[in-house]
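pinning this so it doesn't scroll away 📌
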Amino acid sequence: WTMLAACTVGPGTVVTCARAGAEAGLALVWALVFASLLAYVLQEGTARLTIVSGMSLGECMRVKYGGWAVVCGSSAVCWAVAGSVFLGNTLYEVNNWAGGVDAVLAFPGLGEGTLLRVGSCLGFALVVMLLMYWDKTEKLGVILGLVMMAMVGLFCVVVFYMGIDWTKLGLGLIPGIPERTSPGSAEPADIILSLVGTTCIGYNLFLGGAMADGKTLAAARRGIAFSTTAALLVSSLILIVGAGSRADLVEDSFTISQLSEFIRTYVGDVGVSVFAMGFIAAGLSSMLTVPLGAIIAAESLLIEEDKFKAEKEEDNDQKVKMPRNIYLGLVVFMVTIPTIIISANADRIFVILLAQVLNGLLLPLLSICLLLCINDFQFMSSSPQNRVNNILLITTVTITMFLACNVIILKLLGTILTSVPTRLMTSALASVCGMLAVCCSSNVGRNLWLG
């Protein structure tokens, strides 16, 4: 569960939370709290599904939709979900490379340069591919976790010295959408969805389910509570530091260099170096976890348990069931794409925001899949989903749909629906209607009614 928390707090989390604080102050603390609650409810649901049914979310979907439009031995539904997770994780990997390069450039004395940027990208690619090839990710993960804790300690020191406006922090717990601060700043709706996307990660529904396998429900709940609470505390610290740097912004848009300069005023170059090393550790841990999460999701959705049993028995240390050549091919693809994009000097802050927003848009799809499977009696016959758990899960999924609808409506109909209250009401109506359709067309509504 510590790994689950560590992969949640990646470079995208650092940039997104710092940017949210720099552009909106403490007004979006509530979004982090909501996102953490959403993450707990969804991960608890997938853990309960795994423990009760003995199958992961992907395996349940393979059984549930196995006969639907079979393509190459697997259902088209499973292919669509696996493709969505793979696409989302590839975007996350681009986000990780962007954050990793920003982390390298944050070191005192290093400036932006083509050679340094390209060299950093190639260095990250080499390290990730070698570690994934040798299957040595766990030992490095412990070291990276310790380095990340040093960065967290640094943020604690900065927050201690800068102080906290407790009144603003309290007001920030009240949900609301702040005004856009400048033409160069991000849309608040995008920032909110990106905070959800970086805290409540879709592929964690598959990764968390794998971690829950063989554990008791009480132990799984404790682990999930620990991981989500730890991620919330770290993310909140980063947002608070970002909010402190708000007055020091000299440009319309947020940059990591501005955050580094703000940290330097309190802890000097040594502190900035600690921040950069922790930032790199966060990037590397996510770079290793994201491909693994995508592969775990793909194999559970597409590969039968005993189909490649012979291949798995040949290498007892192999963590995945799919053939090794396919496994390595997917890793190479997910490493090559971000290396090319970030080496080509794409706008890194924009790339990170785009990755978080698009994954936030994918979250409702994966949440609905969980809701449908956990209400299927063939999986939960020994401990059916009760009304209270259904209400919590339905509310959570509806909120993810609302946030996604709000961003979609803003992008597609923003010039027509210029009033914020109108957009919010339209998004709420669309998400409620969508959830009603899910309930009426499946066992969800029946289970909710009968309790």
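📌 and the second one:
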Amino acid sequence: MTEDSSSKTVLQIFPNFHFNLKSEIKDEGVQTLFDIAIDRYTKEVIFQSNNFNIDNTYSSKKYAYSGLPENLRKLFSWSDDDDSKSKRNGVFSTAASKIMDVYSSFSRPSNMVDEDDDVSFVTLSSMEITIHDASYHKVAFPDTSIESYELSINDKEIKLHGNTIWGVLRGLETFAQLVKDQRDGNHFFIYNSPIDIKDEPRFTWRGLMIDVARHFHPIPLLERIIDGMEAEKLNTLHLHLADAETFPLEIPDLPITNTFDDSLVYTEENLKYLVTYAGLRGIRIVPEIDVPGHAYSWGKGFKDKHITSQCPELLERTHNINNVALNIASDDTLNVVKKVYDFIGRVFTDDFIHVGGDEVNEACWREDAFISSYIRDHNMTFKDLQGFFQKDTVQPSLSSHHRSAIAWEELSELDTHVWRFNSSSNLLQVWKNNADIPKFIAKGFKVVVSAGFYLDRQKPVDTAPSRWLWYDTWRDFYEMSLDPNLDSSVVGGEACMW
């Protein structure tokens, strides 16, 4: 046996590595995004110290939208003007040095060069970046090519070509994960060159849902989650903002806030800040206000108004506050709902708002004397009542802010002479059984799939068997697959953490 005398070629880069943009960017907003991305990847992702600490003395006031530089506040602000340039107001400045303080960083894996390896090093000092379409595009829609990129690495050069600015961001993330460091902050390596990657997502909606109503997440923790989403190239953060347990939103002139602790609340400033933080990473935030079910917490702030349905016998029997729905027969309730959605429409900028619509228990409405009397007096069913609620309250609230709806699959079953969920402009989120996807598609819906991706359990449905002693928890998730023949109607998926 003869010893192999060949050596490995390892590419080497240093913290003074340059990113050279070869394409002209005329849009100031895109230029700002690019500058910030390069500054961030250089200082905080590729050549980072890997220090992370969640602020245990959380104060919502610290994470305020008004504390951000003006160019960032305007970058992801909402305007009813349909022109994308008007939405960004044309007031950007290329001020990467003034970007917000980053309170967390996602630690990428690293490998070390073995001292016994026969290695030859080639030093590369820069990356060449080009952008095919340097105009502004919204993340995720209308097609997957928005986030596509090509990355080429060899011992002569490194080139990154993005179809848009979002493709550049996804390519920078791939590059960051190829760079391994020695943990001394000075030596950074790229193995296995040459490397040629051509990447485009299969789905436009690649999401994570977090229930911040039952488990409050301080802004620094949400920042770290967003950083992790960026590393995984997820592009949609779905925030489940209210449920039976709490309503942790501070809405001006509306005494609806109900939280586990007075400090555990999201202000308008916090949420706008978070939209900006996520937007800079190519991640959209889809807010959810689940109505009319799961509404127990809504009533706690209105002692003198009958906002939620009253069903003490049902609660005594089931011990489940999730059975309490809104009293949608009351004008007071309808006015509150309108104000809540108006707040959501002002604060969040995505084209979609999640309206919930799941697990509405009619038994609570039936026990409520006021609602039952209303039903009899107007000669309608409980489904009719919910139909009028969707038609006259929820739908106009979204339309006034030019938004479309996404809802849990139950809302598609609310098919009455009063109202039906419009399949042409809205999305349906499937969470019970993927076998039902063709049924929803046949109704004309495009769907977001969550069945099989519930992170808080092994099986998404209560009646399904669980694995023994929670053994092999992740197996079900990795075995989940979607029929490629349905891709034209499945816009993507969301993992859900309740």
